[in-house]
Write a structure and sequence with these properties.
alpha+beta; three-stranded antiparallel sheet; three-stranded mixed sheet; 28% strand; OsmC/Ohr_fam
């Protein structure tokens, strides 16, 4: 882990009882959720949903930064649909992800260039690059 660069933020959480019957809370109290396994009847979210939300939020912010730098106006209806898969093979778990980016009204070539550059600067894209199967597409 690199310790260079300006530290902007450190998220602090505490999780007890894991993904199936867990509780997760942030140190500042803004996050206070129950966890449940995917497909469970228990009310709660799961780590894959949280990862999908976190990555899509980061990725959309990266698109905004790239567009602002290039003086490209983005539509208010921009959105990202994120899908994170939890898979099991040979008793080993792994994840994969798909990001579907919607930039209505933006020329397709311009939109693709924004997505490509955003994928280079997004912290979650950097963290997953080469580690999981990722597909990013314009819809």
């Amino acid at each position: 882990m690199s310790t260079t660069g300006k530290l902007l933020y450190t998220a602090k959480t505490r999780t007890t009882h894991g993904r199936e019957n867990g509780i997760a809370r942030s140190s500042d109290g803004h996050l206070d959720i129950r966890l449940g396994a995917p497909g469970s009847v228990r009310i709660g979210t799961n780590p894959e949903q949280l990862f999908a939300v976190a990555w899509s939020a980061c990725f959309e912010t990266a698109i905004v930064q790239v567009a602002r730098k290039q003086k490209i106006a983005l539509p208010a209806s921009s959105a990202i649909e994120a899908e994170v898969d939890l898979r099991l093979e040979n008793d080993s778990y792994f994840i994969g992800a798909r990001l579907k980016v919607s930039l209505p009204g933006v020329d397709r070539m311009v939109a693709q260039a924004l997505v490509n550059e955003a994928h280079q600067i997004c912290a979650y894209s950097k963290a997953t690059r080469g580690n999981i199967d990722v597909t990013i597409s314009l819809i």
